[in-house]
Specification:
There is one protein chain. The protein is an alpha+beta fold. Helices cover about 35% and strands about 20% of the residues. The chain is built from four helices and seven strands. Strands 4-3-2-1-7-6-5 form a seven-stranded antiparallel β-sheet. Helix 1 packs parallel to helix 3, helix 2 packs across helix 3 and helix 2 crosses helix 4. It is globular. The termini are far apart.
Length: about 240
């Protein structure tokens, strides 16, 4: 897995973001204040010592609440879809995540995977199984580990349709990637219940993909359950 350097102390937040207009600038400053208070509280609660994906989940949830509350205080004049406001939200998330030793791009991917999975679940009609992710595509937050040494990991959204994988990096400047199920040499679940590791064929250009999602949606055809070994007693049963 890709680990992150945990910070022992809270870093100072920067409430200045060049190029923002009036409403977006005021929203950004208020969001930074909100995230700074949240970071102080989370660090005091010991969140910084949690497992990585657990931290990602906590930061994503806290960020979403912070954006919602800050926008509500700003009133109807604020347009959350305005590009400047979106830039402010991304910058605020980056600072908040960094304070807890995470990358904002990974937290962003976690939120995107949650939203995509919610749409899949809402449109699913129960069929041969009782679990939507066994029959529909599934989205994961993903950390791609390059096969070549020295190259940085890439965060993004990984889609799996039970045959093909499609990876969309969090950064628009990075290209999309894709591979098929046969190029996954091994898939294993890790300690955190929503997480797994896909060991990839080097021909993909990637060594492995660390994946997780909030819904704990781990398809059996990707992560097969291990069958418990039978313990034979003296009765032969």
């Amino acid at each position: 897995m890709a680990f992150f350097k945990r910070r022992k102390e809270q870093a100072a937040f920067n409430a200045s973001l060049p190029g923002l207009g009036g409403e977006a600038r005021r929203f950004y400053r208020a969001l930074v204040d909100t995230h700074q208070d949240s970071a102080r509280l989370l660090l005091a609660q010991g969140v910084g010592s949690s497992a990585m994906w657990s931290m990602v989940n906590t930061v994503a949830r806290t960020h979403a609440v912070g954006v919602k509350r800050t926008a509500a205080k700003a009133g109807p004049r604020l347009d959350l879809l305005d590009p400047e406001v979106q830039r402010a939200i991304t910058a605020g998330l980056d600072q908040f995540a960094a304070c807890l030793g995470l990358r904002g791009s990974l937290v962003q991917a976690w939120g995107a995977a949650k939203a995509v999975n919610e749409r899949f679940q809402a449109g699913w009609q129960p069929g041969r199984t009782a679990l939507w992710w066994q029959e529909t595509p599934v989205a994961f937050a993903c950390i791609l580990q390059p096969a070549a040494e020295g190259r940085p990991v890439v965060d993004g959204l990984l889609m799996f349709d039970h045959q093909q994988f499609e990876f969309t990096p969090s950064l628009e400047t990075q290209p999309q990637e894709g591979w098929n199920k046969s190029q996954v040499r091994k898939a294993e679940k890790v300690d955190y219940p929503r997480a797994g590791v896909l060991h990839l064929d080097p021909t993909t250009g990637w060594a492995c993909a660390d994946v997780a999602n909030e819904q704990n949606a781990m398809p059996d055809d990707l992560f097969p359950e291990k069958k418990a070994k039978k313990m034979w007693g003296s009765t032969g049963q």
